Amino acid sequence: GAVVSQHPSRVICKSGTSVKIECRSLDFQATTMFWYRQFPKQSLMLMATSNEGSKATYEQGVEKDKFLINHASLTLSTLTVTSAHPEDSSFYICSAPKATRGEKLFFGSGTQLSVL
Amino acid sequence: QQQVKQSPQSLIVQKGGISIINCAYENTAFDYFPWYQQFPGKGPALLIAIRPDVSEKKEGRFTISFNKSAKQFSLHIMDSQPGDSATYFCAASSHSGGYQKVTFGTGTKLQVIP
């Protein structure tokens, strides 16, 4: 199956700092990638859709200035949590379909963000 | 609005038993129904999926049953094993804005006891 690599797997930072999370498709090109947030024992909530070469599409209620998304190449999307606060602590996961309209999603292994 | 409802929230099954997880959806535009398995601290992985023109799909010990008129679908895990202990998410997707948009259920934590 296709492989999506997410890095880092875990990050601890101080309040007010920014954190960048990378999502790479290793064996396919992904013009679209999705970013999710998952709280403990809860479902995945779609935050935004990352589009290569254009602006990301954010879901209702997600602050685009807080969660910066950049999809600079066909294999890399980044999520930057700016000026992180303790309430931003969560498990962040990316996914990508192997084809633009592909139904099968391949997920990264997730990033556990803890903001002190 | 929760478009995909999943039950039960948690499930304990004896080794060798059958695990059954149910989901219901509202949006008739959904055209693809995958199930994902997630282990703690990991991203979800696609387990099995079905399209609405099929009533059942089986892959090994995993079976999806789909009832289009009732807008319900379920996952059956036969001969459940301790290694199946994980959280399972049903999902439903439809084409939106040029790509497939996925809505996840609330998840079921399955524990298979020896």
Description:
The complex is a heterodimer of chains A (116) and B (114). Chain A has strands at residues 4-7, 10-13, 19-25, 32-38, 44-51, 57-58, 67-73, 76-81, 90-97, 105-107, 111-115. With 116 residues, chain A is mainly β. In chain A, the strands form 2 sheets. In chain A, strands 2, 4, 5, 6, 9, 10 and 11 form a 7-stranded mixed β-sheet that branches. Chain A has a 4-stranded antiparallel β-sheet with strand order 1-3-8-7, with no helix packed on it. Chain A is globular and about 40 Å long. The mean pLDDT of chain A is 92. Chain B is mainly β. Chain B is 0% helix and 59% strand. Chain B has no helices and 11 strands. In chain B, strands 2, 4, 5, 9, 10 and 11 form a 6-stranded mixed β-sheet that branches. The radius of gyration of chain B is 14 Å and the shape is globular. The model of chain B has no long low-confidence stretch (mean pLDDT 93). The chains are: A mainly beta (116), B mainly beta (114). The A-B interface holds A 1, 4, 6, 9, 32, 34, 41-44, 46, 49, 57, 93, 95, 97, 100-110, 112 and B 32, 34, 36, 41-46, 49, 89, 93, 95, 97-102, 104-107, 109.
